[in-house]
Amino acid sequence: MIVSPSELGDLEEIVRIPSPAPMPQSLAHDGEHLWLGSWETSRVYGISPRHGRVFEEMEAPGKPVGSTVLGDELRFVCSENGDEDNRFIRRYIPGHGFKSRDRIACPDDTGSFLAYDGERLWLSQRANKRVLEISVSGRVLRTVDVGEQILGIAWVSDRLYLSTWLGKDRGGCRIAYIEARAENPQLTFVAAAPFVAVSLARDGDRLWTNDSKANEIVAFAIPS
Q1: What is the pTM of this model?
Q2: In the chain, which end has fewer C-beta atoms inside a 10 angstrom radius, N or C?
Q3: Chain centre to alpha carbon of residue 191
Q4: Are the beta carbons of 54 and 100 closer than 8 angstroms?
């Protein structure tokens, strides 16, 4: 049964922890730790989610927008060159930081959030309301139109979960998913977010996101 976005129940919060920096933006989970990027400080923080303790802090080559884990490394979308807001995908190695020579220009110089399905990267484009399946080297393999603004993405099994923004008049922030490998993926709404949920990162049977206004990081049960 298809549920209207206006009929959804709120997501099931599990825990909140304080963000180590203002304006938490990008978020990833490596199976043990959270990796957060702050829009205000332009820095990346490795965080223990159990205690909220920061064990690593590195300067980013721009404002970190979105991120995902790829093996033992991370990939970040960074907004660079000030007001020009050029978007690049950057390689980050925990314990070492960003590799200055490893950057890929985002297609059409636009991109926000990242997810990794085990083989390919997925890059969201907020204004274009779509996600791109791209190779690790940056070649576009497929385009999936979503039809809504995207605030975060994360892979869960065979589904690509999305935090979407419908606008204030249509209900604000909603969690949804698509069967991204299907021939014609359809957006299925599964929960309402009572705050603007920026970024998604999978951690077992839960997802993490940022409540930037409250300056907190929130875990919630994966809705189905």
Answers
A1: 0.94
A2: N
A3: 17
A4: no
